[in-house]
Amino acid sequence: MIPEIGEFSLILSFCFSILLAIIPMVGTIIKNELWMNYGQTMAKGQFFFILISFICLGYSFAIDDFSVTYVANHSNSLLPTQYKLSAIWGGHEGSLLLWVFILSGWTLAVSIFSKNLPLDMLARVLSVMGMIAIGFILFLLLTSSPFERYLPRFPADGADLNPLLQDFGLIVHPPMLYMGYVGFSVAFAFAIAALLSGRLDSAWARWSRPWTNVAWAFLAMGITLGSWWAYYELGWGGWWFWDPVENASLMPWLVGTALVHSLAATEKRGVFKSWTLLLAIFAFSLSLLGTFLVRSGVLTSVHAFASDPERGLFILILLAITIGGSLTLFAIKAPNVQSESRFSWLSRETFLLINNVFLTVMAMTVLLGTLYPLLLDSLGAGKISVGPPYFNAVFVPIMSLMAIGLGISISVRWRDTSLDRIIEALWKPALASILIGIAFPFIYGSGFDFSVFLGISISLWIILTISLEFIGKFKHAESIFTKLKQLPMSYYGMMLAHLGVAVVAIGITLVSVYSEERDIRMVAGDKVSLAGYEFEFKGTQQVQGANYTADRGQLIVRDGDNVITTLNPEKRHYSVKNNMMTEADIDQGFFRDLYVAMGEPLDDGAWAVRVHYKPFVRWLWYGGTLMALGGLVTVTDKRYRKKTSLSTKNEATHA
Amino acid sequence: MTPKRKKRLYIILALVFGTGIAVGLTMYALNQNINLFYSTSQVADGEAPVGTRIRVGGMVVKNSIKRSKDSLQVSFGITDYGKPITVSFTGILPDLFREEQGIIAQGKMDNQGIFQADEVLAKHDENYMPPEIAESMKKKAGTE
User: Fold this and answer.
1) CA-based, 20 to 30 A from B60: which of A58, A386, A560, A630?
2) d(CA A524, CA A554)
3) Does the pLDDT at position A35 exceed 50?
4) What is the pLDDT of residues B74-111, one digit of tens each?
5) B132 — pLDDT class (breaks 50, 70, 90)
6) 3-state helix, strand, coil in chain B (%, to 5)
7) What residues of A are in the B interface, CB distance below 8 Å?
8) Do B15 and B56 belong together in one domain?
9) Which residue among A386, A580, A608 places its CB closest to the CB of B72?
10) Interhelix angle A489-514/A618-635, nearest 10 degrees
11) Average pLDDT, whole number, for chain A?
């Protein structure tokens, strides 16, 4: 009964999304306020019924209703309850339901928090989001309903959730990532609404900015969590694999980053308008492409699911409609868009433009590397794969240049700045970061290393320039405290996010260059040293988990004579699916991680053991978190909650 | 040519030049770093180049896994149900590696006709078969 209610309310929410797509939009055309207002009610209805649907699926998981195919395939009566619930998004159907649920959540949020938006704008935005919802709910209903029953005879117990996914990381990573992916639908809807209404001023940018920043922040957090999860759960200590699916989340993030910056220029100076629109369209299209790549099974990837081509085709059609439709609209409407101001070569606008060019080039090269194998294959030119060296070769130079530009742009003013002023402000941090960059590999490592020099220099460059800029704000301030309060929250957000970039860069550099690892065969009593630490293997013992048995190893870690910690990596055997799983154990630290994982058992009680020394690896995730935090902080800026006084003024100049 | 047009021409030339360099570098990086996929039959027939990094995929042959006594060296056969080849690998195999499981190995052919893998990939999902393997096996079935 419950699954049928779930399916039924999904159908109801589909009806709501049709109304949501049509009525407010028609309202804007016939200028009927009542119809325009309808959108908010419809958004609530749509959210409510998807919520019910979501709860129904959760309930079916909780009570082990294995007559539901999706539950039977992704759960088991022995599975711990928290994983039963997170198993909702452990497979294709459920994660799509999550996708749609989050979409309706964003729609609801827009309808609630956009009271200061003009009614017609809000009506258009909600209507576009309704159209997206139509596509995806239809996709769910037609090809991938999670409520289908195993009839007439259903299995007595479920096939269990993939052990890799039975982890805290899976509970939080997909929802965060989807919040980001789907969040770009709001930026997209704002862009389409702007094109439809021809209203594209700084007020529009101000409405659109907080939504974009939040979506961007969630995506940053989602990617960070994914990297962290892969690091400890996939078992082998890597934190980024340039896997097609990782790329699928990185591309919208890169374009989203460009969008966040170009929106800033559009709001402050009224420039790059059509470019901003284009970025908003691309950010969301790349999110859809990401969904397609993950869900269609066209790529060889650790994330790929066994799936049927019908689903891939459906998303491809959705993608084609979205990109084709919005670009056509763009081509018709965008030529009318005019810039409101001019700027010289040496201005913040120029640097934001450079930032945008770098970010989009980066996104394009990632796209090329990801799709090139597909392209060649469809042309019948053979099967290939593009390896990490390609991505590293293009990523490092582009990102280095961008980081240098970041530091400069901080001290460049809007509109125009004199070269002398820039040189005066920047020569000291430039010199300091180069000198420390040269010295660092000698002090920390054993000799000069160009990668370390580059990474440390550009990170320091960012840190020094933003710190100096921040301190400079207080030069003429009467009291530090009042100045601290005066500075807008969006300024703090920007500082945090840029600091995050530097922290990530330090992490990437040091963990890439100074990591050490060894794979060895160990029997009880064997010792191995790595990076000044000594690991002693004490053998293994059998332990019993909730739904698995495990061999738990014991390794004592010493630094000289001091025992630092005892690590207990496990080799788990999940009986339902007859799966082996490596559970690494990590001694975490601010400056280094010690990472131990057990491979397979060998003869005579020996084990294959992998030990890692990972300096500064955590800085990757600290930095990612700082970026996400920065994005969220900007939203608390008072400016975004101002009533329409400013926007009416803008309206007057644009009428 | 008016100065304004001249300026515009320079900008366009700079853009074309810049894009050209970017595309050129990208294609170069791409060409250096792509790995061609071969089926085991192709490799056994000597179609794969020796000493170039390639990918080979197939099912792990039953009872073919041999481990070294004192190191992590392991060798096993993989097949697309046409001709099998022997793969040698030193290190830790992935959790989903087992007999009759589809895997992809990356590495180089040596002179003895043994594939020296530096990476072995098995997938998350045991129902899932990498498209490359599925296709090369389908082809095999079609020719027989």
Assistant:
1) A386
2) 9
3) yes
4) 999 998 888 889 999 988 888 878 888 888 888 998 88
5) low
6) 35, 30, 35
7) 162, 164, 235-236, 297-300, 302-306, 361, 365, 368-369, 372-373, 382-387, 389-390, 393-394, 519-521, 577, 579-582, 597, 599-600, 602-603, 608, 610
8) no
9) A608
10) 170
11) 88
